[in-house]
Amino acid sequence: MQKTICLTNEVTETVTRLKEKTQSISRIAGIIQNIAEQTNLLALNAAIEAAGAGEQGRGFAVVAEEVRKLAESSRRSAQEVMIQIKEMEQVVGQTTAGIDDANMGTRKQAQVAEQTEQSFERISEKVTVVMKDTQDTGQRMLQVIQQVEGLFASIHRIASAANDAAASTEEVTASVEEQTALFENVAVIAEECKGLAVGLQNTVNRFRY
């Protein structure tokens, strides 16, 4: 009985930490959406200035358009991440309900041992869903990071040939840098969520077996 109490407490603590991490990702995804919108405007302004610079600004105009497309892609990706997080939060909420059932079963002791085991079965199923969602989120963030870093390198290569659009170049570059840092932060948190979910699954398995 003491073992069951310890395990349910451990599961509760892990789920609480997982919930905090998903909330962090949701906040960062919202920030990314805002930055993406700002980057889109900066890229449009840079393209206009580059067009005014004639032949010299043509190369940067191409990059500015790529950055604009990246900003839109980043906005959509952040939106998709927020949808995934909402789904994860629902699953975490259901997992918490399962823990409450297990705790209730623990308090009633042996007479509802089967009910307690069923509660942990449900928790295990929900944890499996959370693990998949966190893994998908982490992979998506890593893909977007690679896109951002690639365009960031392109901006640096062409910036030297776009003197007439230098001010806009610096603004767009700074915005892309900020997006990259945020995406990296999300990827780290998503990986931490995955680790928490794995730990939660192991804890549940210890109870079951």
Characterization of this structure:
With 209 residues, the chain is mostly helical. It has a single domain, classed as Substrate Binding Domain Of Dnak, Chain:A, Domain 2 (Up-down Bundle). Helix content is 92%, strand content 0%. The chain has four helices and no strands. It has helices at residues 2-52, 58-108, 113-159, 166-208. α1 (2-52) runs antiparallel to α4 (166-208), α2 runs parallel beside α4 (166-208) and α3 (113-159) packs antiparallel against α4. It is rod-shaped and about 70 Å long. It starts with a helix and ends with a helix.
Quaternary organization = single chain
Integer tally of domains: 1
The arrangement of helices and strands along the chain is HHHH
Low confidence ranges: none
CATH class: Mainly Alpha
- Overall pLDDT: 65
> What do we call the CATH topology?
Substrate Binding Domain Of Dnak, Chain:A, Domain 2
CA-based shape: rod-shaped
Derived structural class: mainly alpha
Percent helix, as a range, is: over 70%
- Report strand %: under 5%
> What CATH architecture would you give?
Up-down Bundle
Instruction: State Rg.
Output: 23 Å
- How many DSSP-defined strands? 0
Main beta sheet, described? none
| End-to-end separation | 15 Å
Number of helices: 4
